[in-house]
Amino acid sequence: MEQLGDISMKNTTKFVSVIAFLATVCALVGISVMGQGKEAKEAAATVEIPIGAYAPEQPIDYSHKLHAGDLEIPCQFCHTYARRSRSAGIPALEQCMQCHTLIGRDRDAIKDVVKAYEDKQAIEWVKVHDLPDFVYFDHSRHIKAGFECQTCHGPVEQMEVLYRHAPLTMGWCVNCHRDNLDKGASVDCLTCHK
Amino acid sequence: MANKINRRDFLGLMGLGGVGAATLSCDLSPTDYEEGFDEKWKPWVDPIAGEVPYVPRYYATTTSESNGVGLWIKTINGRAVKTEGNPEHPINRGSLSARQQSVMQGLYSPDRIRKPLYKGKPITRARAAEILTEQMNANKGKNISALTGPIGGSLADLWTTFVSQMGSGSLVRYEAFHSGEWAGASNKVFGQNAVPYINLAGTDMILSLGARFLDDWGDGNAHERNWAKMKELDHGKRGRHVQVEPRTSVTGAAADSLLLCKPGTETVLALALLKELAAGSSALTAEEQSTVAGLVASASLDDAAKTCGIKVAKLRTLIDELKHAKSPVVLPAETTVLGHQSQAHHIAVLLINKCLGGIGKHFNYSAAKPAKDVISHRDIVDLVTQLNNGAVDVLILRGGPNPAYSLSPKLKFKDAVGKAGFKIAFADTMDETVALADLVIPNLHDLEAWGEVNPYAGLDMLQQPVMRPRWDMMQAEDHLIQILAQAAPGIVAQENYREYLKASWFGRFASGSADQEAFWRYSLKKGGRFEMAESGENLPLSGDLGGDVFANVQPMGSKGTKLIVLSSARHGDGQAAPRGWMQELPDPMNGVTWDSFLEVNRTYGTSAGWQIGDEVSFSVNGVEVTLPVMLSDTCPDGVVYFETGMGREGIDERYCRGVNAFSMFTGEVNDGGRFAFEPANVTLNKTGGRTKLATLHIPGLGDQLNTPLTGTDKTDSRFTRDLFQTVGISELSGHGDGHHGGGHHGPLNKKVAFPEHQDKNFYYDRSEDPLVVGRSETFYDPYKWEMAIDLDKCTGCGSCVTACYAENNLPVVGKDQVAKGREMAWLRINRYLSYTEEEDHTEVKAYFLPMMCQQCGNAPCESVCPSLATYHNKEGLNAMVYNRCVGTRYCANNCSYKVRRFNWFTFDWDEDAKWYTNPDVTVRHKGVMEKCTFCVHRFRDARNKAKDEGREIRDGEVQTACQQVCATGAISFGNYMDESSEVHHLAHDQRAYRALDSHLYTKPGVSYLKRTVFDKGHA
């Protein structure tokens, strides 16, 4: 099928993919070396799911602790849209495959991922952090203002199973906005309710 | 206040109690709202290159139905969500009409064909391909004819190649409304068989003999823009627009002077004008003068005046004004009132413009539509004859034009198609014509497919897919190339139409270009090739003006009530009828939605004992028609008016409504190559039936369309509140930027803590509000968003209304709810009438005023909201927090402008319609009040960008949706506090006033600029 439009510059895309591939290989080598080194030393601390916290079962037993904690992969390596869009997004399966074409192919969870990728079947993740439809939230603005992901999402790098850390209630949002008025945060209703 | 609980605190405590109870009674799972819990998320398997979720991407493209304008399609998350105008395009320059915007509802139409059909039954794609191949093999070399829309460029090349290679058939192009009549007339006058590009730029006087160039005639977007430019005041002077027409149209209402003429007399008038203007014209040579004089020897202005019913003195003034204007333009009448005099009329109009020196500048033959692209309706009549003779073995229909709907039933098109050996349709949407085919192969919509549109020489537009096809299907042209590859190998070198188009594009335009790939990308990004010649030559009269060109000119028909049929700006040739936005957009002159109606003079109708909605029947050209009447003050006696586009059949049943105007046509083709229709004498008989017409309606004001602008009854406050104001041009001082006479609204001081006139406690006292403690509560610093609307430029066309529907996800509520006054339009066009007693008649004028939330600085709605859902924000917006609204409707009751809309239901959206909803706008449910907030979500990107760059938002950086599509530029929007901004400038214009401000002191944030009127004594 024809790629959308022709604005996407094919040559540039190819070039970028080659660079991305090389970078990925380097990163992989780095990560595996680093990971082995870490494993040899000590694994990152694990945080228990607090009682009553929302931690839905996901189709794949994905561990943020392993990826973000033990392997120290930066959040935005996978959640690439967070700094550019209102939605941080769950990475496309292709992003998983950049590493898992080589790594961990013998594990059950990875086999599921590879199968889904080969079948071109999107994995249906359950949203852990979800806001109602009448709230407008923009990831990119919060990252541009210099906030850590952990401020709202909690110690993700220590979570085997991702759970909702913050209540995500309006009071919780407004409290933080009020504390950061000097950084340009707004408490006008229209900021989030457009 | 500290000692007593006020209402809001009480509600707050109640709320706390509720939460407390909920907390105690259930477990600790963090569900404080029902929705979205356990919501699933499906990320992409492979990301689309460059696509970022929720960040819009725009694609420059066009569609075959867009009347030759350039589009920018906004896509979000890989799906098309909104139609916007291409700002670089020479014709529309970013503007769009209501109908052009509705292409989005065509893309997501419930009538889209998803599976191939054989004899009406769904079959698999493989089976369809088999049947197609079988038929093509069996019929190769026989008559395989194709019927398509007005295709040009590489599309026409490919179809012509296909038809000629496959057999002895022909390619027939058809479109219900086209401008082909210019070609014949131009050939006679200038020896140019082409349709000139009519360009009103730089004119200072427009005389239209009926062409509704501001609603649905020619390149409306460009005409509106240039018309508005003409009306701009420059040192107390501006150009004039005089409209001659049988019935008040939107264009007539916008004209400075409307001369109502008897229907069918336009050509007689044109000849008389030609005679007067040719005599002594400096633009003609002596020889040309004598030629023209010879042609119009028998014409006489006095007789013409009598025939038309216009005073001869008026005509003399008009001629005088035309002669003295610097660069006047005269436009013809509408083809459907010209009958068989079409060519004579167009010849006369071309000659008049020749006399006035407008050929070249206003009638540009260097940017003309060439003869090969000109359509004539004779072709389809010939096709019908061939079909009836059984000469066509295979008929291939390309979806789009719908002749089974728009041809006169007298031609018996459906029966004729039945006589073809086999019928194949490639179509994206089901319609009356596609339903006739044996084999229906689903086609991609124009927004999913490649294509090309070529309206004029030098204007070639590329159509590129803006999203992946919604279903697995292939575009019709790819099928043709596949068939050709088998049947005639080597004829088409390319594998698919995209490559074919590219090769054709290079061949035509990039022969000298070194990097063809870069040129292709450049063209796609731009939207095509925009190299129309600015102006053409002033051509000499070198055509064949035989002595008999005006021989058949005479007034049409006898005395009596005459029926006029014109194209509808909303539904066009019927293609836009099955679209909710177009059905719910009120007819500008009458406010009718969702139904066909017959416009009848109110006095005539009342004296016959009819009321609005009473059905009358009449017979025209042998067809019996029954229609509900709409009584109108602007429609003159002796004329009844009806428009095309309704009466579709066999589609989504919600849109099968009304009566098909094309059924009244005779099927004869006139000498201009169009189906002739002339004002027909009709006798109306009341049938006793009744249709309740759903008209635009304001609660509390009754039928607002019949609210007169001025009235004698001074006790009725509707007449004294000056909602719509006009001002004489001579009353204005020369410069146009003083501050006197106009508004009652004094300039606002910068950085005021509260709007100065107000008691601080007028608003909820926020001095101890924890939200604002430690902060100076400064209003209007640095922004106060305001809007200015120039009533001189507003034509009332309604494209802003549709833009608002598209941008803000306004639901289409259907006829029953509109009839109850529950339409959800945040922006509506108010129509006001003024009645002036003249010597022998009452002159009725219609004025239009776009009305949306005025973002009052002293808003009546805010103070009555018990839940603080609506409040005045620091940037001057009357904010509305939907999830805070509890639905008391106090605000709507108290709104002086009646612009708040209540969700009486959670309106269901079609599954398809959900695709084009704007994800930036809050979802609203049953029980919530909603309204315009100046597209506040659009500020976000500009604000973020400005914040990142450490500056304030620049003037013009934020456009509201309504402003963006307005072709005349009537709407301006910006920061009032920026003294250099356009909106600040306009708010202090001497014409500026704020609606109801002097009566209610609401301090609206919208300035209206009074409509300027000429003094008496003009034509």
Describe this structure in words.
Chain A is mostly helical and 194 residues long. Chain A has 9 helices and 1 strand, in the order H-H-H-H-H-E-H-H-H-H. In chain A, helix 4 packs across helix 5. The N terminus of chain A is likely disordered. Chain B is an alpha/beta fold and 1019 residues long. Chain B is 25% helix and 18% strand. Chain B has 28 helices and 41 strands. Chain B has a 7-stranded mixed sheet with strand order 6-5-17-16-15-7-8, with helices on both faces. Chain B has a 7-stranded mixed sheet with strand order 27-21-26-23-25-24-28. A 4-stranded parallel sheet of chain B has the order 12-11-10-13. In chain B, helix 5 packs across helix 18, helix 6 crosses helix 13 and helix 9 packs antiparallel against helix 11. The longest helix of chain B is centred in the N-terminal third of the chain and has 19 residues. The N terminus of chain B is likely disordered. The chains are: A mainly alpha (194), B alpha/beta (1019). Chains A and B meet through helix 4, strand 1 and helix 6 of A and strand 1, helix 19 and helix 25 of B. Chain A: This is Cytochrome c3 family protein. Chain A: GO terms for molecular function: electron transfer activity; heme binding; metal ion binding. Chain A: Keywords: Electron transport, Heme, Iron, Membrane, Metal-binding, Transmembrane, Transmembrane helix, Transport.
